[in-house]
Model the fold of this input.
Amino acid sequence: MDYIISILPQMWLGTIETLKLFFITIVLSIPLGILLALARVSSLGGLRSAVGVYVWLLRGTPLMLQLLFVYYGLPFIPGIGIRMDDFQAAIFAFVLNYAAYFCEIFRAGILPLLHLLTVLFFQQHCPMPGIEHGGTLAFRLSHFGLFLELRQIS
Done:
């Protein structure tokens, strides 16, 4: 029992570090995930493909491998040589990993809405410019989509 009491301060410090890592990861990865999801459904084929490869790579490799690569591998890449301390490397790897997962979650919420909005525009024959062919992705999302997406994925 004395041993457990003696390690409680270190356990508390570890808990605080873990919570800091969690909150920083969530705050940074959700906006990045939204941007990646918008890029993933964009009409620019190169951007869509690049984000698709990013998501495939980050979701397809274990997080531990990504952490090891960021901490030990990045300093040895010629021309880059990025060195980070422990906490920075953990944040960097976690944000990139979780943003890939959030990208797919938000993309899954955007795709049905784009279809729904296009169908509604065709049914209403709305005379607004840009809507006669369903409108562009930016137009549909800026006018209707983000509100509906937040309701759909929550």
Notes: Helices lie at 2-40, 45-60, 63-73, 86-124, 137-153. The chain is about 80% helix and 0% strand.
